[in-house]
Design a protein that fits this description.
Radius of gyration: 18 Å
Number of helices: 10
Largest sheet: 6 strands, parallel
Low-confidence stretches: none
Number of domains: 2
Strand order of the largest sheet: 3-2-1-7-8-9
CATH topology of the largest domain: Rossmann fold
Oligomer: single chain
Shape: globular
CATH class of the largest domain: Alpha Beta
Order of helices and strands: EHHHHHHEHEEEEHEHEEH
Bound molecules: adenosine-5-diphosphoribose
Structural class: alpha/beta
């Protein structure tokens, strides 16, 4: 049965790495997942960066290069079209790859930052779309190492972004999780929040997840197929 977007006062699509899987970007967990190949303790936490910034930056440059070789798919385009037709379609994402933005989707809360930004502890955040390799690995003001503006393991989430996402989710009447294992905070908290707030909950994921029992519907389809056929 199709879901009519216009019947909802506010809709949140909550996306994870599985949304980009069909573009060729590997997910974090499951077969071929990044954390099955790499230890996060070596590549994705502040401690690893403090120990060996060059190694961590090199890892992230390889990820940027591999994402650049991928392109958004029909599911991304369907999301952009839904937003164009219905202004109250919001996107809250855990994706850092920029694929949604490349497809023309307006992202309302980017929970885990972006691999296309760099951050200096002293001098703030700057865009870096220079390609696979970073434009600069050091801050032009203080020469400190720049780190990717993403949420690593053991980092806390930007409070303002977290609050904005929480507000959107607690106010929506339809909550659609797409391609997330929903085990990592805040995903693990946002699904129950949507439930408590009385939204209709739909999960798009070829696999079941630890959160599946909370959803009203589980759509066991890849994101591209579900996003292009389920919503009218
Ligand atoms: N369509 C929809 N879902 C898919 C597809 C697809 N084509 N392919 C895979 N999936 C699902 C998988 O079944 C899995 O449940 O996408 C999910 C991806 O889960 P994760 O790899 O855990 O990604 P995510 O939930 O975004 O991870 C959350 O964990 O490591 C951190 O910071 C990282 O943002 C990430 C966070």
């Amino acid at each position: 049965m199709q879901i009519s977007i216009s019947e909802h006062s506010s809709v949140v699509f909550f996306t994870g790495a599985g949304l980009s899987a069909e573009s060729g970007v590997p997910t974090y967990r499951g077969a071929g997942g990044i954390w099955a190949q790499y230890r996060y303790e070596d590549y994705a936490c502040q401690r690893a960066f403090d120990r060996d910034p060059q190694r961590v930056l090199h890892f992230h440059e390889l990820r940027r290069a591999s994402v650049l070789a991928c392109a958004p798919h029909a599911g991304h385009a369907a999301l952009a079209a839904m937003q164009a037709a219905h202004p109250r379609v919001q996107v809250v994402t855990q994706n850092i790859d920029g694929m949604l933005q490349r497809a023309g989707v307006r992202v309302d809360a980017e929970l885990h930052g972006s691999m296309w930004r760099m951050r200096c502890t002293q001098h703030g955040i700057r865009d870096d779309f220079s390609g696979g390799a970073y434009a600069s690995r050091k801050c032009e003001h203080c020469a400190a190492w720049l780190r990717p503006d993403i949420t690593w393991f053991e980092d806390s989430i930007d409070e303002a972004v977290f609050a904005r996402a929480g507000k959107l989710i607690s106010e929506c009447s339809l909550f659609v999780a797409v391609g997330t294992s929903a085990v990592v905070y805040p995903a693990a908290a946002f699904v129950p929040l949507a439930k408590r707030s009385g939204a209709q909950l739909v999960e798009i994921n070829p696999e079941t997840t630890e959160a599946s029992s909370l959803f009203d519907r589980h759509i066991a389809l890849p994101a591209s197929q579900a996003l292009t056929t389920l919503f009218v």
